Amino acid sequence: MPPKKAVADAEKPAKKTKSGGRTKKVSAYNKFMQTELARLKETEPNTPHLERFKMATQNWKTAKENPKAEA
């Protein structure tokens, strides 16, 4: 079997990309967690991520953004 030839980048066909795909709407929880984790990272830089995540989930329970908030 003969050795394979290296194909130059210019000879490779262009990859097709999907167009017109829908993006998921970010839920209130995801949006809150994104901003809350960033805020906690600023205020608690020495706290491990797992602990900050636990704090953020506790804060979600009483957050005004939460439609099922207990407060």
UniProtKB/TrEMBL annotation:
<feature type="compositionally biased region" description="Basic and acidic residues">
    <location>
        <begin position="62"/>
        <end position="71"/>
    </location>
</feature>
<protein>
    <recommendedName>
        <fullName>YABBY protein C-terminal domain-containing protein</fullName>
    </recommendedName>
</protein>
<feature type="compositionally biased region" description="Basic residues">
    <location>
        <begin position="15"/>
        <end position="25"/>
    </location>
</feature>
<feature type="region of interest" description="Disordered">
    <location>
        <begin position="43"/>
        <end position="71"/>
    </location>
</feature>
<dbReference type="InterPro" id="IPR056775">
    <property type="entry name" value="YABBY_C"/>
</dbReference>
<dbReference type="InterPro" id="IPR036910">
    <property type="entry name" value="HMG_box_dom_sf"/>
</dbReference>
<feature type="region of interest" description="Disordered">
    <location>
        <begin position="1"/>
        <end position="25"/>
    </location>
</feature>
<feature type="domain" description="YABBY protein C-terminal">
    <location>
        <begin position="22"/>
        <end position="62"/>
    </location>
</feature>
<feature type="compositionally biased region" description="Basic and acidic residues">
    <location>
        <begin position="43"/>
        <end position="54"/>
    </location>
</feature>
<feature type="compositionally biased region" description="Basic and acidic residues">
    <location>
        <begin position="1"/>
        <end position="14"/>
    </location>
</feature>
<dbReference type="Pfam" id="PF04690">
    <property type="entry name" value="YABBY"/>
</dbReference>
